[in-house]
Amino acid sequence: MKIGFIGLGKMGSRMTEKLLKDGHEVVAWNRSAHPLKTTDTIQNLIQNLKAPRVIWVMVSAGEATTEILTEVEKYVEKNDTIIDGGNAHFADTQKRYEEFGEKGIRYLGIGVSGGIIAATEGYPLMVGGDRSAYEHIRPILDSLSKPCGGHDYFGLGGAGHYVKMIHNGIEYGYMQSLGEGFGVLEKSEYNFDLVKVAKLYQKGTLVSGFMLDRTVEALEDPEMKTVKGIISESGEAKWTVEEAKKNNLPVDVIETSLEFRRKSQTDECIQNSFAAKLVAGLRKAFGGHGVRKI
Questions:
Q1: Which one from 21, 25, 99, 171 is the annotated catalytic residue?
Q2: Which of the chain's termini has less CB crowding within 10 Å, N or C?
Q3: Which long-range contacts (CB under 8 A, 24 or more apart) does 140-145 make?
Q4: Spelled out in words, what is the top-level CATH class assigned to the domain 2-157?
Q5: Could you tell me if 81 and 229 are in contact, meaning their C-beta atoms sit under 8 angstroms apart?
Q6: Would you say 30 and 38 are in contact if contact means Cβ atoms under 8 Å apart?
Q7: Domain made up of 164-293: CATH architecture
Q8: What's the pLDDT tens digit per position in 230-242?
Q9: Of 265 and 227, which is predicted with more confidence?
Q10: Are 173 and 254 in contact (CB under 8 A)?
Q11: pTM for this structure?
């Protein structure tokens, strides 16, 4: 297929390269200079696509997404497909789906997971919005999900971003548990080799999997001496907690892990804890996020 791709950051550039390798034609635009050949304007990008067009927007949620979509809207036509692959709030996606739908433009909100290794392992893609658009872009999703990822359609409007929101909320709690558990191991009188422990945990235990694999990577500095435990949050856990409270549901683990990240911004005791340092290291290992150095 031929696709317009807007946003060539950590995820977008890798996704674009994966599509090109699988034989798709990509017309790209990025706000700043990029090694991949790009068009100079969003208008030119869209004009280089044949109707019905497919335009994938991969930028940070919030004002950046709003600004890009406002520009895209000027040039798209009925039956074109717009995809928001960022971590937008599901309610914003729902609203955009309805607004674009009134103009006959098909809108998809796709939650993209898998971190930086998904470029080779395959992206898990959580789709919501226009069902016909999902069916239309299956070749793109099939390519992005190869060889071990996947994609599925979850419903109209913001459904896909809702599923991704909950995924990220769970992720916060899981990372916090790993940080705390290895923090206890690190203080033990037995002087454990944490990498050796993590590698055994990988071998079929109930906590084995993607995030434990990243733990092994993060423990390249076993004592975390060079890492400052300041952990950023990106919004999805907060939205998960808000949604749970709206429905009178307990989410104590997710809420506590979110509060821990917030306190890590200013609390030196938390910043110096092994748990906070490991969580920060995990974010770098799976997503390429920056860590603060001591």
A1: 171
A2: C
A3: 140/1, 140/3, 140/19, 140/24, 140/54, 140/56, 143/18, 143/19, 143/22, 143/23, 143/24, 144/15, 144/18, 144/19
A4: alpha beta
A5: no
A6: yes
A7: Orthogonal Bundle (1.10)
A8: 999 889 999 999 9
A9: 265
A10: yes
A11: 0.95
